[in-house]
């Protein structure tokens, strides 16, 4: 390796290290603060390392009847998993005709779907609330599972992946007597597993982190999700940074573990989605 190449490599590593520290520092501060006492968490100037390591914050949020964190956690898991499954089903069923079938107005329909990406989601809060209220879904998990299960992003992602699958495979299946539905289920969907997994994970994370919508439609503590439930820690306990950080750790730990566990699979799926047959 030449001197110039070595200098470039070192400079690249320094830049990447700085960027990594910028992203990791807030996470590290959150975790360390969750192990501080109430006084230590509000000390001025703030300190990184706790003067006294304690689990008091976790004991408070996990052991208090007014903060049923385990119930909120299970509600979030149920809602996020069910929502991601619905997103994968609706997106794949809507994307396949747009990728493979020929019908009048196909381009117009796809353009209309993509145009909805330009609509800010907050604009739909009131219409969605009215629909959910009329259906009697308020204060139930179904209110945070169904309304946003059909989205343009998922349709676009799956359509682009379906276009990358060689059409000859579907033609061969039809020559063997398979109808359109059998071809879709037996040939197309197995080949689209990377895209389906990526879309499902993105939908799960979006639903898991959603705060605004659950606050509007979930009222009882026993049906709230983690983001909405943990927001009550601030109003009930003033500015208890130790409790807030402990709650943030509880909410973010499953997401971080899931990302670490599936990171390689996600990268492989995204890279495969660009392969043309």
Report what the structure shows.
The protein is mainly α and 277 residues long. It has a domain at 70-230: Orthogonal Bundle (MetI-like fold), CATH 1.10.3720.10. It has 15 helices and no strands. It has helices at residues 3-34, 38-41, 56-63, 69-100, 106-115, 125-135, 142-145, 152-164, 167-175, 180-191, 193-209, 212-217, 226-230, 232-236, 241-272. Helix 4 crosses helix 8 (152-164) and helix 9 runs antiparallel to helix 10 (180-191). The radius of gyration is 24 Å and the shape is globular.
Compact description:
The chain has 15 helices and no strands. With 277 residues, it is mostly helical.
CATH topology of the domain at 70-230: MetI-like fold
Number of helices: 15
Distance between the termini: 38 Å
* Multimerization state: single chain
Could you spell the SSE succession in H and E letters?
A: HHHHHHHHHHHHHHH
Mean pLDDT: 83
What is the SS-derived class?
mainly alpha
Question: Quick one: biggest sheet?
Answer: none
Overall morphology: globular
Key terms:
mainly alpha; 15 helices; 277 residues; globular; MetI-like fold
Topology (elements, then pairings):
Layout: H1 3-34, H2 38-41, H3 56-63, H4 69-100, H5 106-115, H6 125-135, H7 142-145, H8 152-164, H9 167-175, H10 180-191, H11 193-209, H12 212-217, H13 226-230, H14 232-236, H15 241-272
Helix pairs in contact: 1-15, 3-15, 4-8, 4-11, 9-10, 11-15
